[in-house]
Amino acid sequence: MPSLTEQHSKRTSGVIYGAFGEALSSYGICLVSGGTDVHFVLVDLARSSGKPGLGRGDGARVHLAADLAGITLNKNTAVGDKSAQQPSGLRLGTWKVRLTSM
To answer: Is 15 strand, coil or helix?
Structure first.
């Protein structure tokens, strides 16, 4: 039987993951699965209305800009992408929360 601390940790992590996805959605960012219950979300820039001039194939450009700013994320293909070299998806995560089992 899991301890109360373990149960609290799992419940808290789920709340944080959900809030992360909801916050992105509130800015018009399209989440591929509509939300998340894990420590990362997959964003589709081609279907996001809140993006500043971004669209299909811009995942690599955002990945580079984020890297230059010291932000770690991954570019990913999304449904409809013709090339993995020019993806529209981004994988954003809260790995530190997961690592510390908050």
So the answer is: helix
User: HSE-up of 48 (CA within 13 Å, CB side)?
Assistant: 28
Count of domains for the chain: 1
The span from the CA of 85 to the CA of 95, in Å, is 25
92: domain CATH number is 3.90.1150.10
Q: Is 31 strand, coil or helix?
A: strand
Torsion (CA) 91, 95, 97, 98 in degrees, nearest 10: 110
Full domain range(s) for residue 40: 4-99
Cα–Cα dist 100/55, whole Å:
34
Position 20 scores a pLDDT of 76
* Arithmetic mean of pLDDT over the chain: 76
Q: Structure pTM?
A: 0.66
> Looking at the chain, how many residues does it have?
102
